[in-house]
Amino acid sequence: MTMAKPDDRSDNAEKIQNAINNTRENIQQTNDYLDEHADEISGEERHNLEHKNTKRKRAIEGFEEEYQDEK
Q1: Under a CB-based contact definition with an 8 Å cutoff, are residues 70 and 20 in contact?
Q2: Average pLDDT, the chain
Q3: Which intervals carry biased composition (Acidic residues) (predicted)?
Q4: Which of 33, 46, 47, 60 has the most beta carbons within 10 angstroms of its beta carbon?
Q5: According to the model, what pLDDT value does residue 71 have?
Q6: pLDDT-above-90 percentage for the chain
Q7: Residue 1 binned pLDDT confidence (cut-offs 50, 70, 90)
Q8: From its phi and psi, is residue 4 left (phi > 0), alpha (psi between -120 and 50) or beta?
Q9: Angle at 21 between CA 34 and CA 51, to 5 degrees
Q10: How far apart are CA 10 and CA 55, in angstroms?
Q11: Per residue in 19-34, pLDDT tens?
């Protein structure tokens, strides 16, 4: 019988902070793309990317609450 690994949460705060940083970077990259290619992208693509960034911002809010719980 295989034993379950112990629940090691010692690096949770660090992992959450990395997720926050990566998500912020993704938002910035999307904004840069939208700015650089404003004349080339369709309205639908713009809408989809802006919607994705909205979801990312909400995710960051959740990550930040979780981060505070882990500190």
Answers
A1: no
A2: 93
A3: 62-71
A4: 60
A5: 74
A6: 80
A7: low
A8: beta
A9: 35
A10: 28
A11: 999 999 999 999 999 9
d(CA 18, CA 63): 10
CA distance 3 to 65: 32
Question: Tokens 């992208």 map to which residue?
Answer: 41
Place of tokens 């809408």: 47
Q: Find the angle CA(68)-CA(25)-CA(23) to the nearest 5 degrees.
A: 45
Count of residues for the chain? 71
The per-residue b/e assignment along 25-57, b for 16 or more CB within 10 angstroms, e otherwise, is: eebeeeeeeeeeeeeeeeeeeeeeeeeebeeee
Tokens representing 71 are 């500190």
Over residues 33-52, mean pLDDT: 97
